[in-house]
Prior knowledge:
The complex is a heterodimer. By secondary structure, chain A is an alpha+beta fold.
Amino acid sequence: xxxxINVFGLAVGITSCILIGLYITDELSxxxxxxxxxxxxRVVHQTSHEGEIENGAVTGTKAGPQLKRTFSFIEDYARLIxxxxxxxxxxRQFTEKRVLYADAPFFKMFSFNLIEGNPATVLNSPNQVxxxxxxxxxxxxxxxxxxxxxxxxxRGDYIVTGVCKDAPGNSQIRFDFVAxxxxxxxxxxxxxxxxxxxxxxxxxKETNIASAQKQIDSYMRTSISAELKMTGxxxxxxxxxxxxxxxxxxxxxxxxxxxxINYVYIMFAIGLLILIIACINYTNLATAQSATRLGxxxxxxxxxxxxxxxxxxxxxxxxxITFIALVLALVASTSLLPIFNNITGKALxxxxxxxxxxILAMLLLSVLVSFIACAxxxxxxxGMGLSKILKTGFSFSKSGNGLRKTLIVxxxxxxxxxxxxxIVVQRQLHFMQNKDLGYDKEHLLVLPLDxxxxxxxxxxxxxxxxxxxxxxxxxxxxxxxxIGWGDMIKKTSESTDKGxxxxxxxxxxxxxxxxxxxxVAGSNFTRADLALLDTSNGGKNYRYPFIINESLCKxxxxxxxxxxxxxIYKNNxxxxxxxxxxxxxxxxxxxxxxxxxxxxxxxxxxxxxxxxSPDVTATVDKxxxxxxxxxxxxPFEYHFLDEDYNKLYIAEQKTxxxxxxxxxxxxxxxxxxxxxxxxxxxxxxxxxxxxxxVLGASISNIVNLLCREFLQLVIxxxxxxTPIAWITSNKWLQDFAYRISIGWVIFAxxxxxxxxITLLTVGYHAIKAALSNPVKSLRTE
Amino acid sequence: xxxxKHVSKWLTIGGVRTFLLKDVNLTIKEGEFVSIxxxxxxxxxxxxxxxxxxxxFDEGEYNFLHExxxxxxxxxxxxxxxxxxxxxxxxxxxxxxxxVYENIETPLIYSDSKTGERKAIVADILDRFQIVGKKxxxxxxxxxxxxxxxxxxxxxxxKPKLILADExxxxxNSKQGEEIMDLFKKLNEEDGVxxxxxxxxxxxxxxxxxxxxxxxxxxxxxxxx
Lengths: 781, 225
C-alpha cells in the first residue's frame, strides 16, 4: 500500500507539473516563432491632455506610413484591424469573426508561413485575401482556392491570392482570413486621430529601440504637435512596444486578450508547491516504511554490506518508483490535456514534451526528486549503528517524528492556502456574476444590426415588436455590459470650460425602458425628440437629446431635478431629458463613471430584445423566423446579454478553475500523505494502544488519542496559512472596484473542511486500531 | 470471586479444532494468591487473558463477582475489568512517551477521576513504592526492576480487587524478581488484593497458596499449599 501511495502521489505531482510546465512554456513562447520577433514593435499611442497621460494600443491610419516616411530605421509597417464579415462561396456562407485587414508587408514581417502565394504580393492590391488552411478546406474542400473569388457581402468580391498555415496558438495575432488593407475605404486617407488600428513596425537591424524611441518622441512632440495645433504641453506621441512583451507585460490589450506575467509566476509557484508536497509525501512514507525494514537492513549489515551499498540500494529503489511515476504521469498528462485545455482556454499539445530536451530534463528532474526524496531515510538508515538497529528494532527516533510532522504541516499550509484562495476567487466571481448591475441583464437577446435593417430601422423594429413573446426592442452602438466610447461633455460652450471626461453611447428611444434602468428625474426619450436631430442647414439647429447618469449629473453640479432641460455640450449642444440611476457599464474592476446616452438613429450596431414570455426558446425561434424573412442575406446568429457580461470575467473564471483544480490536487496529495503516515503511526503505536486498552481506554479514547495528534498539526497549518491567504487574497481583490469582503466565514469554512477531511483520513486507521484486540499486540514473544 | 465452568476456547484451522483451553473448571476466592504453571503453549496466558476479560472464549460460563461475564456485552465487560482488575506484564508495557508519573496516572484518566483526586492517588502510590524521585523520568531511563515496579504501581492505582500478572519476573534478574514477588506477597497479605500470576519459576510459584498446573489447555492438577 505504501508503494501505491508513493507511486500514485508522485505521479499526480508530476502530472500537475507537466501540465503547468506546458502552460508556462506556452505563455512564455508567445510570438517567439516570428523570425523577426526581436525587431517587431507595436506602436502604442500616448497622448497628454492637460497633464493627463493616456496610452492605447490603437493608432490612426497615419502613424505607420508617416513613421516610415520620416525615419529610415523603420523598415516596414503593417496596420491591422479585425472585422466580422459574411463570407460566401457558392452555397457556403458563414459569418466570420476573424477577418484581419493588413498592409502588404504583413507576410514579410511576421512568420505566418504561406503555403500558396508570394509573400511580397499576396496583399498588394485591394480586394485580395489570404486564407488559412482551415478556411481553405471549409470553403473549398479539396479545390485549390488560389485565384478563386470569395464574396464578402456588401464589401464586394475578394480574390484569393494565397493560403497560409493556421496562426499558432501562441500568437498575439490570430486570424482566419487576411485581406489587403487597401480594400478598406479608410486606407485612402491618412488620419492621426481616428484611432482604431493596431500598427506594427519592423525596425532595421542596426538601430536599437531606445534610440528609435528618442527620435520619434522628439519628432512627434515638436513637429507633429505643432501640426495638430496642440498647445500647453499637450502632445501625441508613439511608444514602441516590443512584440515579445505584448502578451505578458503590456497594459494595453490588442487583437487577442493579453496574458499576465503574474499569473505565470503564480502558476509556477503552484507547480513547485505541488511537486514539493509530492516529494514530502514520498520522504515521509519512505522514512515510515523504512522503519519496517530495519530487520532487513540489519541483516544486510551483518552480511557485510557497506554504507555506500545500502545507500545505493535505497536510491535505486527510489529511482525505480520515480521512474514508474514519471511514465504514469506522462500517460496521465496526455489524456488529461483536453480537460486542462478546456479550463485554461489554451490549445496545448504534448508534442513539445516528447522531444529530446524535455525528456532529458524530466529524467534529470526525476533523478533529482528521487535523490531528495530518499536522501533522508537512506542517509539515516544506512548510517545507523548495527547494534542500535538490532536492539531498538521497531522504535524510531523522536527527531524523525519532528521532521515528519513539519513536512505534514507544510503541505497542509499549502492546501489550506489554496483552498482559501479558491473560495475567495469563486466568491468574488459569484458576486460579480450576480451583482445587481442597475439594469436587468436577463432574458435580453442580442442581435447584430446590419446596414439594410438600419436603413429602414423603424419598420424593422416594429416588426420585431410584433413577434409574440417580445416585450420591447432597442438598439445601441455597443452593448451595455461594456461601453467603451470615450467623449467629452461641457457645461458651457466656452473654450475655457475644461469639460468632463465621460463615456457615451448612441441609443434609440427605447434603451432605458427596455433595459429597465430606473429614471431618477425627467422622462424617457419620446418620438418628438427625434425632431431635435435636425441635420438641415448644415446641422446648425442640431440638438442632442441626452439621458445622463447620476455620476455625470453630480459632476455637472446639478441635482437630478435641476438637470432636466439644461443644455450641455458634446461639440454640439444638447438637452438633458432625464437622469437615470448609475448602472454598471464596464466590468466591476472599475467604478461607475459619468455616462451620457444620446438619441441617435444611425450609429446603431446591436439590437437588444427583451423576451417577456416564459417560453424563451419558442420566442427565439419566432424571432429567427422573422430574421430569415427580413434579413435573408445573413445567418441568424444571436446570443444573450448575460453571456456578454460573463465574458468580461473570463480571466477570473480561468483563475477560479485553475485554483480549484490545483487546490483539489494539493489536498488529495496532502491527504494521501496523511493517510500513509497515519497508517504508519498507528502501526508504530500498536503496543501503546494495546496497553491503553488494557488500562481501561475506551474506543473513543483511542480514536481521540490518534486523531488529536494529526488534528493539532492541521490546526497549526491552518494558523500559519490563514494570514498568508488573507494578505494574498486581499491583494488580488484590490483589482476590483466592487468586491467581497473576506469574512471569517470563509476561513471557518476552509478550516472545518480541512479538519473534517483530516478526521476522515486519520479516523479510518484510528478506529481500526481501537477495535483491534489488545491481546495480540501485547504478546511478549 | 472467579468461577469458571467448563470453559473452552479453540481455533479452527482448516476445519480442525485446536483447543487452547479445554473444559476448564476453576474457582478462585477473594484474597487468594494463585500461581499458574505449565510448559509453553499450555494455555497459561490464554487462561489469564480470559479471566482478565481481554480475550473471549467459545464455550462455558464465567462468573466474576457474581456477574455472568459470558453474557455481558463488550462495553460492560470492559467497565467491569476497568474497575476491578489490574494487569502486570512480563515486558512491563509502559508507554515510552510518558513519564513515570503519567504512566501511573493513565488508568485514572480512563476511569474519569477528577484531576485533584488523581494527583493525590498517584502521589500516594509513588510514595508507597518509594519512586517519588523517579516520577519525571521516562521508562527507558529505568532499570528493568524499576520499570516493573512502575508497572505494578500502575496496575494498583485504580485500587483493583484482582491483579493478573503474566510472568511478571520473566525479564528480571533473580534479585529484582525476588523484590517483585515480595511486593506481591505484601499486597496480598496486607491489602487483601487477589493475585493470579503466570510463571515458569518453581520458586516464584511457591509464593502462591495454590498452584494450578496446565497442560494442553487442560488443568492437569491443582497443588494446594
